[in-house]
Amino acid sequence: MERIKKSTTKSKELPPETPVAIVLLSGGLDSVLSLKIVLSQGIKVKGLNFITPFLKEQKTVREQAEEFGIPLVTIKLGEDYLNLVKRPKYGYGKHLNPCIDCRILMFKKAKALLRKKFSFIVTGEVLAQRPSSQYKNALLMIEEEAGLVGRVLRPLSAKVLPETIPEKQGLINREELLAISGRSRKEQLKLAKNFGIKNYLSPAGGCLLTEKEFSLKLKDLFEHREKIEISDLYLLKVGRHFRLSPDTKLIVGRNERENNLLFSLAGNNDFLLEVNGIAGPAGILESRSKDLIPLAAGIVARYSDAKDFPSVPVNYWNSYNKAGVTVKPLNSVEKLKSLRIGSQ
Q1: pTM for the full model?
Q2: What is the mean predicted confidence (pLDDT) over 75-92?
Q3: pLDDT recorded at residue 79
Q4: What total number of domains does the chain contain?
Q5: Which of 162, 187, 206 delimits the end of a domain?
Q6: Taking burial as the number of CB atoms within 10 A of a residue's CB, which of 11, 48, 65, 343 is the most buried?
């Protein structure tokens, strides 16, 4: 299910007859530059931001909307987005990122916000910046799939793309748009300096699905869990993950913050593990069985201050049981590597 929420940005509601550009804001440099270019032509604007379980940060988007004084709508994508990631019609990019399917879904959601025939959508997409979803044929195909042919304006690359409907209608002056293409960001950085834009996310600050380690963790989850809840995805962002058996996974915290998160995210049937009396990580064993607790305890002990001890006491508990086991820390690099999911 999706949830739509209006931000608290103080902007007046626009009369229904006013043409409105729906600007897709990601928090990145390209989208905020596109926003600035459209605003400079006197176009009324609404910001639109999508939240998925795989995005790292949203605060920057809200700050950008506040800075430019525009209303912001956020749409939270949940199970429908997860199903898309599991079975994308157009496949994946380099990792588990279904960029084309993702863009089509977002454009369809954005289309529902358009007002009258003069409204249109603005994105920060740059021609040929991303090989899987931003080559010319893909951009045009995504528009067609979403039912938005000619109604998507890409200000940064407009002059190397077909003329859009808002340009033909005289709402946008094509001569004031740009012809950027390719992966270099020199022109965007120069524009940002000229516009005085400083608040934006780095290119690596976006979607977790483009990251190798996270994608491997998610792929493992798809392979071993028939029913996946949105809450399961939050655990993928925390700690080191180990596949101990087809139905048993261990997650080990890497610092105090992650340890606290693991304690808060553990299910009633999950076993929590912690070395007794010695500084070290917390662990979650996702299993109803105790059979693999000694192996899990050995891994948790390996990442503690007692990793070189001949034997280490490890406590384990869940909502129904509490006990302890004494183990030798598992220090075999090869064994750890064979069990770890997404190890670099």
Answers
A1: 0.83
A2: 91
A3: 85
A4: 2
A5: 206
A6: 65
